[in-house]
Amino acid sequence: MTDDSVDQSDKARQLNAAHGLLQRHVAVLEAVRRLSRKFDLSERQAYRYLEEAAQLDRPVEVTEATVPITLKLPPSAVGLLREYARSSA
User: Fold this and answer.
1) What one-character-per-residue DSSP string does 14-79 give?
2) Which of 10, 23, 44, 66 is the most exposed, fewest CB within 10 Å of its CB?
3) What pTM value is reported for the model?
4) Do 39 and 17 form a contact (C-beta atoms < 8 A)?
5) Distance between CA atoms of 71 and 68, rounded to whole angstroms?
């Protein structure tokens, strides 16, 4: 897994936690402390997540993390894959 895929998934969870705290009307300072402890964040970063979450209408969808891979394929297989991709788009 790359850092980007983990970071996006973690960020979504952190934003959702911040959103939930705001929805429950937890005081900002207490919300900062809870986020900081739960996700091992600096208080500054926790506050940023609260600010970002305040702009959300609803929780962020947490998608499954992706894993980038590199494949070495023969040109004929690449051609077939490209043809399939065009026909199924």
Assistant:
1) HHHHHHHHHHTT--HHHHHHHHHHHHT--HHHHHHHHHHHHT-SSPPP-PPPP--------HHHHH
2) 44
3) 0.62
4) yes
5) 10
